[in-house]
Design a protein that fits this description.
The protein is an all-alpha fold and 196 residues long. The protein has one domain: Hypothetical protein af1432 (Orthogonal Bundle), CATH 1.10.3210.10. Helix 2 packs antiparallel against helix 3, helix 3 packs across helix 6 and helix 4 packs across helix 5. The model has no long low-confidence stretch (mean pLDDT 95).
């Protein structure tokens, strides 16, 4: 497995300055959330650091990469170019950085769309991506942190995720972007488990 320093060196060479700054923020936020929810901190650190490792690839490059290396990808996912970096990033984490831990790979893979029955690590990386301090809206971050503070344990995490998915869907509708069916499924799943 590549070291944190090796991964950072690579990311600095392929990501924009702002994207790299965001990535460091996600790594820090993922570690803090992992500590809060009793999840392996090292896994959270690596997943947070690598979550956007393919983000600065051009859309054509991502599509070509997927055609060549991930041909079984659900065709619904190909309809929104903004999420293509997630499966490519998971592939790169395994193949380029020798990450063999399936929890880490899965957290990278699902940090954009989410999935029904997300693991704690998947939830943490997804949420860290939405609320890190470096580039995300502070008012929104504070609202999510309040949800976490007002609700104990995984209930708070689920309620915070629900809020994020609701906002994401609103944003996609506003921008007239394709909403993957898996995102809708996650929204419905979170609605069901947070209603009680």
């Amino acid at each position: 497995m590549s070291s944190i320093d090796e991964i950072k060196t690579y990311l600095k060479s392929v990501l924009s300055e702002e994207r790299y700054f965001h990535t460091l923020g996600v790594m820090i936020e993922a570690v803090e959330l992992a500590q809060r929810y009793g999840v392996d901190v090292k896994k959270a650190e690596i997943a947070g650091l690598l979550h956007d490792c393919a983000k600065c690839m051009k859309t054509d490059e991502l599509r070509e990469f997927i055609d060549k290396n991930i041909p079984c990808l659900d065709k619904n996912e190909l309809k929104n170019y903004k999420t293509l970096h997630a499966p490519v990033g998971a592939y790169l984490a395994r193949e380029k950085f020798n990450i063999t831990d399936d929890d880490i790979i899965s957290a990278i893979r699902w940090h954009t769309l989410g999935r029904v029955n997300m693991t704690l690590l998947e939830k943490i990386v997804f949420l860290a991506d939405k609320i890190e301090r470096n580039t995300r809206d502070i008012e929104y971050r504070n609202q999510i942190i309040k949800i976490l503070d007002d609700n104990q344990g995984e209930i708070g995490l689920n309620k915070a995720l629900f809020r994020c998915f609701a906002e994401t869907i609103k944003s996609l509708v506003k921008r007239k972007l394709y909403i993957c069916t898996s995102t809708i499924n996650v929204y419905n799943w979170l609605l069901e488990i947070t209603e009680n």
